[in-house]
Amino acid sequence: MASSDNKVSGGAPSHASITPDTPAVTLDCLSDSTWLQLKALGLDQTLQQIHESERRFRRLFEFGPVAFHELDQEGIVRRVNEAECRLLGVEAGSIIGRSVFEFISLGEQSQSREAFKRKLSGQQPLTPFLREYVRRDGTRVVVEIHDALIRDQSGAAIGIYSALLDVTGKEEAQRALKDSENRYRALFEGLPSPVFVCDSESLRFLAVNEAAVLQYGYASEEFHSMTLWDIQPRENLPALLQNLGRTGSALDRFGVWKHRKKDGTFFQVDITSCAVPYGDQTATLFVASDVTELKQAEAELARKAKELARSNAELEQFAYVASHDLQEPLRMVSSYTQLLARRYGGQLDADADEFIGFAVDGAARMQNLIHDLLAFSRVTTKGHELKPADAEAALSQALLNLKAAVEDSDAAVTSDPLPRVMADSGQLVQLFQNLVGNAIKFRREEPPRIHVSAEQGTGEFVFSVRDNGIGIQPQHLERIFVIFQRLHAGAEFPGTGIGLALCKKIVERHGGRLWASSEPGAGSVFYFTIPIKDH
Ligand code: ADP
User: Fold this and answer.
1) pLDDT digits (tens, 9 = 90+) for 215-238
2) Which domain holds residue 330?
3) Which residue's CA is the nearest one to ligand 1's atom 25?
4) Which end of the chain is more exposed for a tag (fewer CB within 10 A), N or C?
């Protein structure tokens, strides 16, 4: 029972004052003559039985586990038992004799008074109802109240007898269930993809969401008289049956299937499904995501990738064949122009000597170009399998190949311990040779200082080749990796412009990245990564 501030006064329950206005009837209070008269009438036994029964019910009322109170026809609390005092945290003495409406919040008082009168007069059925109370210690209790009328001998209602059931937990659980149901319903209805709940045996639609109605073109009621077979061609039957067998409570991908709309057109859907409880049966839930455009894009992408791979292979083959086959005639041109220079140098006029000189230089440059182009095309066509390779050994080999350049430039090449990596060791040598070779080539006046190191990153080794050379302007840091792109004239620094493009191709073949950072005039650092793979 709630007071007007919705709190009940608390205190230790005391059953001594539970029923002060109705003292128990005892047979001791009867006088001897009355007793003898009753005995003569043969009523003494009956009286004793009535007394015994009354005593039993009184004990049940007072000490039973169910909370009870009794109200008179004005709504005054006449009796309250110990269970109710315990439930509401009150003392019987503090509520007996007070109007039950005092314990109800102000806003509800007149309504409750009206309802009470209607119940007494039989105008309102005695259906159970919920009421919330706040105990003095601030805790909430929700009770379900079951009323019964108390009648006098003539059958007139003279009060109400109420039993209170504590439903606090139950009511919260029900609310949580309702909330969760509402959430799932909102999710089901709000999902942009069609969702179907089907009978697992017959595959009849039990529930469909709004997106299904919109995408398939059937009204919700139409769906209820249909099965999955009405939208799913039978050719999918074996796959469907196989999948249905393994449908569990976790979402599982069924794969991409063709579905039919009401207008007869087909579209591709990616089906996910799981088993869900539906009433007292287990049903299957299908989520159908329209992937028609995705699949078309995928097919287009695959076609383009295939086309790209084909044209790439063709180009590589062309570069290889061209550079390979050009070598022979070029060797002829080169050796004969050199022969001309040797045999007729100084015998013709000065112009002729100069022209022959240009021809010899041109042939030599073309030989270098073709040599490098061949090396470039061989990265993929002639690459070897990636195996555990010692980066330190690869660097040593590269330095051996660069021995003359190192000595001529008085370069100092140092390195930290380098790891073993999964690589084509020949290409690893090529990589170091190009990067260290460039570091020597693009030097300043002072002797080159070059340092090679490697650090372990996340899932990869990051190698670096640092120099103290001329450096690179920031705007050129990307284009130096493009084939034939050079920042300097041949006379200044000789080269073909293939070296870094070759390095990039090697690194990418190993699954890594290559980039540079630089401070013009102070030096550059070239970085490359090699993924760490299990040997
Ligand atoms: P090449 O060395 O034949 O010119 P690369 O592809 O190796 O061709 O290099 C492309 C350009 O990048 C070079 O012409 C040069 O301008 C620049 N470059 C490469 N390495 C360095 C370096 N260590 N320091 C400064 N510039 C560099």
Assistant:
1) 999 999 999 999 988 898 777 666
2) 295-379
3) 471
4) C
